[in-house]
Structures are given as structure tokens and as C-alpha cells.
Amino acid sequence: MRLLVLGGTSFVGGSIVSAALTRGVDVTVFNRGISGQPPSGATQFVGDRTLSADLEQLSDDRWDAVVDTWAGAPYVVRDSASVLADRADLYVYISSRAVYARPTPAGLDESAPTVESSADADSTDYGKDKRGGEMAVEKAWGERAVLARAGFILGPRESLGRLAHWLHRVERGGNVLAPGPADLPFRYVDVRDLADWVLHAAESELSGPYNLVNPVGDSTTGSFLEAAVSATSSAVELVWVEPAFVEEQGIDRREAFPCWVPPGDGNDGLLSTDVSRALASGLRCRPIEETVNDTWTWLQANPDLDHPTFGLDPAREQSLADLARRT
């Protein structure tokens, strides 16, 4: 198989390229060449995909599939999808469950309503940008388009630092404020499982949208945080707080508790997403313990990584933990 990856050096794109090379796939990457080098064995075209002249570098070759991880303005996907429409058999666009309109319905499947957007739009917000990208690929590729609607993407090489935050926070020890309930579904996809599925999709010539997260019941917030405690061998106490407590105390959940999706607030579908279509198509998800352990190993091997900052001020976290115990 010959594969073209637009990008190919970041978290998701780089993981897909690495997985493809391991399988013996002939991989070409197209990027600006400023975010690091692709893995050894990949052919690199250097160019800016927002420039039509640079995109023309790709017009004289042919691949079996294209993989696109773009998360910005939809018109950029539109232009790439148009130029490559007769250069490959399949276009796999890494999208997101953020494309679904709020409130998301319980048992959210791929037929649920999506946000309003346009393939010609500039960047507005993440959900609309991803939906516009989907529309661009669908328009140019029709049934040859695959839309990978991923949940939280975690695992080694994660650039956003969400899992890294929890591991480092647990490693620090003490009282860790834990957003509950502990049995709340924890829906995510390991980047390596996503990469394997993308390659399987390309080989199998799948079509249409797929929700790519782990199955319901596979992991919970409790099992996720317990896995972090086990991986770091830390002496901590998880102080569980209910969603009402988080709201009453004015805690910014996205900054304080990355990857936590509270019940209610239009989130029912995100917590109960139906992944039967993806499972039937070949998605396989490893245990949360493996994702956490392997990410911790990677973090220890790369101590100088510069990740975005999440979490509460330590003094405030301790104060909130004390308050939670008294209420």
C-alpha cells in the first residue's frame, strides 16, 4: 500500500506514519518541515498546504489512500481534497465527536445531527472547523471519504498534555481532587489503536463516518485515575467530588480536569457514544492501564517535554479537598 499523510510529524499524524512503516507501507508525508522530521523510511515533500503552488507538488503521483489530520480552517481541507481527488482511492479525515450538535443524544451514533458549517469557511471553533473539513472531503471524494470521529486521543507522544497532567499530578502525591462520580464512563481512544484502525480503513476501503472511542464499560474515571496511581507508584488520596461541587466552587473543568466529561450539560451522547459501527469495521481498543503505563514510560524517557499547563493551584486544590471532606 502507498499512503500519503498530510502532516505526519505531530502526535496523531506521526503515530499513523510510524504504524504504517512498521507494516511495510510505502509512506509519503507532506508538511512544512518545521515540526520535526518524519520517521526514517518515509518520503517527505516539503510545502505549505495553504498555498496552491505547493499543493501542486502532489499532482503527479498516486497513492492508495490519503490521511489528513487538519484541525483548522475548512477551506484548507477543501483545497487539499480537491487537488488530490484523482490521486488516490480513499481519503481518511481525522475528525472529532465535536462535530455533533448539542445537546448530544444518549446512545450517540453516526446519524446524529451535526453542527452547521461550510467547506469554504475560515476557522471559527473546533467543532465547526472539523465539520467543515468533513464536508469538504465528502464533496470532493463522495463514498471514497472516511470520517474518523475520534474522542479524546491519548497515549505516548500526546502533545496536548492532558494525560501527562494527570500522571505528573498523581506522581506529586498528596490529596488529588478527583472529579466524579468514579464510575462515570471514560471515553477515549489510544492513538495507536486509532492509527491501526486508520490503516485498516485504508486497506479495507471503508466509507463514511465512524465514532472512534473505546466501548461503553471499558473504563471509568475511577479506573483511569487508579491506573495513573499504579503507573507512578505514588502515595496519594483521591478525594472524589461530584459535578455539583465543581460547579458550585467555580472550577473551570476543562483547565482543572482535562478529559473529564461531566454528566448532564448536553453530554449524554459523549458518555454513551455508540461505537458498534467502528467495532464491526475493525476497531480494537487496548486496556486503559496499557495506555497509561506506556504514556508514563514515554514521559520518563522524555523529561524535558514542554506541555500545556492544566490543573489547579496546589493551595487551592488542598483547600477544596479539605472542603469536600467536610461536606
Q: How would you portray this structure in words?
A:
It is a single chain. With 327 residues, the chain is α/β, with parallel strands linked by helices. Helix content is 39%, strand content 17%. The protein is built from 13 helices and eleven strands. The protein has helices at residues 11-22, 52-55, 74-83, 126-141, 162-172, 191-204, 221-232, 243-248, 253-256, 268-271, 276-281, 288-301, 314-326; strands at residues 2-6, 26-31, 43-46, 65-68, 90-96, 145-150, 152-154, 174-179, 188-190, 208-212, 236-241. The strands form three sheets. A seven-stranded parallel β-sheet has the order 3-2-1-4-5-6-10, with helices on both faces. Strands 7-9 form a two-stranded parallel ribbon. Strands 8-11 form a two-stranded parallel sheet. Helix 1 (11-22) links the parallel strand 1 (2-6) and strand 2 (26-31). The longest helix has 16 residues, at 126-141. The protein is globular and about 70 Å long. The mean pLDDT is 96.
Radius of gyration, whole Å:
20 Å
CATH topology of the largest domain: Rossmann fold
Helix content: 25-40%
Q: Which structural category fits the helices and strands?
A: alpha/beta
CATH architecture of the largest domain: 3-Layer(aba) Sandwich
Per DSSP E runs of 2 or more residues, the count of β-strands stands at 11
- The spatial strand order of the largest sheet comes to 3-2-1-4-5-6-10
User: How many distinct helices?
Assistant: 13
How far apart the termini lie comes to 59 Å
Number of domains: 2
**CATH class category name of the largest domain:** Alpha Beta
What integer is the average pLDDT? 96
